[in-house]
Amino acid sequence: xxxxxxxxxxxxxxxxxxxxxxxxxxxxxxxxxxxxxxxxxxxxxxxxxxxxxxxxxxxxxxxxxxxxxxxxxxxxxxxxxxxxxxxxxxxxxxxxxxxxxxxxxxxxxxxxxxxxxxxxxxxxxxxxxxxxxxxxxxxxxxxxxxxxxxxxxxxxxxxxxxxxxxxxxxxxxxxxxxxxxxxxxxxxxxxxxxxxxxxxxxxxxxxxxxxxxxxxxxxxxxxxxxxxxxxxxxxxxxxxxxxxxxxxxxxxxxxxxxxxxxxxxxxx
Length: 268
Known about the structure:
Blueprint: H1 3-14, H2 37-48, H3 56-73, H4 76-83, H5 98-119, H6 122-149, H7 173-187, H8 194-214, H9 220-242, E1 246-253, E2 259-266
Antiparallel strand pairs: 1-2
Helix pairs in contact: 1-6, 3-9, 5-6, 5-7, 5-8, 6-7, 6-9, 7-8, 7-9, 8-9
């Protein structure tokens, strides 16, 4: 895989990080009608078209992520040598603990859902929706990018530069989902237990990244790219969960000839 192709993959991985809408208002409440099929489809559209709304801060974050991934790539072989030991150092890319490593992330979603159900709490339902959305969007994106990159896992090849070989190493799906769900959990809800939320959310995400390295199923740069994708997705989900203003423009014919431009705004 050439450098240009790798850069395109990284761009796609980090693109969803832009805000869903430039008129986002964090102090408003997300409408319940977005917790529906139509609302989900709108979120998917906004998620994958987010780059057109990037501002200077988004581009700086993107550049920083690229730099972090590039630096971590230079340490891939060294980190692998730390964890790739014994008979399983090259086992053909068999991921024996995939479900176990995904369990803590699933527990965050499930625990939040049970809490919301037990208290019949509408805010809890909205947060559960945001967690599910972040997890699904990050997982689907990471899976697609893994297929496009085709990078071999460190337990299938000792070289970190085996791109386009049919592997699914880059980025780490587990880490992307863990950081998407963990960050959304950490930054959602009220401020009363913010410290606890951040310990749990970021702790589980970081722990997932470490475990994937320790088990020799991902390169260091896979986990860094996965975390960048997950955090970007969480940023999108948190803004959507918080609520947004919607602005629409319409052009229609005016009486007496000519055209009229109208603007309407709906806030929640």
